[in-house]
Design goal:
Blueprint (H helix, E strand, L loop, with lengths): L6 H5 L6 E5 L8 H8 L5 E5 L6 H16 L5 E4 L6 H8 L5 E4 L1 H12 L31 H15 L3 H13 L5 H12 L1 H18 L2
Length: about 220
């Protein structure tokens, strides 16, 4: 992750809490990055970990368990390229606990898209998701259901839950481009677009309707 985590500082809201786990072996911070981070010193908390093989991973997961015990309804996101955390995520997701992972590529791609002018919408390319073993994909629709029908259903569902037209367009785009069977990616996209709390609350509202879209 290096210092790419600093991109979270501007994305976070007053409801988010960033916990930075590090060891003596963590990469050093450059002066430009240090200057940037110092402008947001109240936005995150640093947690020192002991060194050793996979030591930080074990300590992070242990701390996650502690947090889940005290606040099980909170949404948690692990920012890391290490897909070893996915087993932990699947474990808690099976118990209806909201834990997900976002990689550096996913985080930086969101920043790039925000800086670029709007262009023709395309499904994310596998080649651009080199560190993600299960990149987002567009679900192939049955021949009996025309794309326009699905779009109309999505827009109807979104407009029922989202008042802002701009926000509704974002949610519609996510539901039209993501695989409807991959609820974790839909949840991640909503969190990245609307923040941890708002994105997770919106996901909880539209989740029952997503199942209707798959029928």
């Amino acid at each position: 992750m290096g210092t790419h985590w600093k991109e979270l500082l501007e994305k976070s809201t007053k409801y988010d809490r960033i916990l930075l786990f590090y060891t003596d072996n963590s990469p050093y911070v450059s002066y430009p990055d240090l200057e940037y981070i110092c402008r947001h010193t109240g936005s995150f908390e640093m947690i020192a970990c002991h060194t050793g093989r996979n030591a930080l991973d074990f300590q992070l997961v242990s701390y996650l368990g502690f947090l889940l015990k005290s606040a099980p309804k909170t949404r948690y996101v692990i920012f890391s390229n290490d897909n070893g955390y996915d087993a932990v995520i699947r474990f808690w997701s099976a118990r209806e606990i909201h834990v997900s992972r976002v990689s550096v590529d996913q985080l930086l791609s969101q920043k790039t898209k925000a800086e670029e002018k709007p262009v023709e919408t395309k499904a994310p390319s596998v080649s651009k998701q080199r560190n993600v073993k299960h990149p987002p994909a567009v679900q192939a629709e049955p021949k009996s259901k025309k794309p326009s029908v699905r779009q109309g259903m999505v827009e109807s569902i979104v407009n029922h839950h989202v008042e802002s037209k701009e926000d509704a367009n974002k949610v519609t785009k996510i539901l039209l481009t993501e695989n409807l069977n991959d609820l974790r990616e839909i949840h991640n996209d909503l969190v990245k677009s609307f923040g941890m709390e708002a994105g997770s609350d919106l996901y909880k509202k539209i989740k029952p309707d997503i199942h209707k879209l798959k029928k």
